[in-house]
Design goal:
disordered N terminus; Thrombin, subunit H; single chain; alpha+beta; 33% strand
Length: 305
Amino acid sequence: MKSSELLFLLSIVLVCVSLCAGRDEKEKESFYAQLSRAIIRLEHFEKTQRKKSAQILVKNVSDGTAFFIGSVNSLYVVTARHVVEKPYDLHARVQCRNRKTLKNEVFLLELPRHKWVYHNNIGDEDTRFVDVAVMKIPLIKEHSINCFRYELKDSNDYDKNQLPLGDPEPPQPILVFGFPRKIGFTLLEQIPIGRSGIISMRTGKKFLKIDSNKFVEERCLIIDASMFPGNSGSPVMNQQRIFDLKPRLLGLVIAANDKLDFGIIEPVSRIRETLDLARDKSVSGHWKLILKTKVNPVHETDTNK
């Protein structure tokens, strides 16, 4: 077989790779469509009163990015701790696929602020906390959600695991997907934007300082990839290449430099550790179907500002 024919066949395989292994054949989607249902924008409601009017406007204000992880029969939403450590509850609008009609329906996922589980490394006077937050959320009957698979090593489904045991090393090629805020244009649809880059450096304890003049924790990594406001909590995954076709979660974004051309990430090991802390927690959060015909401020006053 010619090399050009081999590359063509491999490209077909790549397109067919599913974000969540084990999906039904008739539910196959493009890779980007799968990502758009696995990655969500965290928001909160903000009320304002129009000038010279009693009318109250309700708009969605973006707080950052999050993503879903599935493990056995449990579902989790994962993001950066500083994104959700707020004095108000958050929510997200999620595309869920109806298993019967195979059509996407939009649900509002309500996330109570007191139900987040944080990593147990809270830092000290010199070093910042591990910036990972997890909430165990309910499944939706008769609907599917795309997610990264987390399977323990002794599981019968470990071959479907997408959270590696080891953290990535430079110069691993990566993809970062998140929801932008102020980037110079407005998106009519709520879909993530992807950026490519590499894992460029391991930081080491007491090496790199960020906010509050504290060092990042010792496992953090620097990525050489363009960032934008709203990237906090974004999943970092491998670039699918000929010998690395399986999508794998490598970490999540927690910060960027002033020029937004480098990012700092918590590695996958910290995500795994926080998921293990949340495993025995009770299910929290609530799903509400958003009807297209219903007058709803969730749709009518959306903003990316």
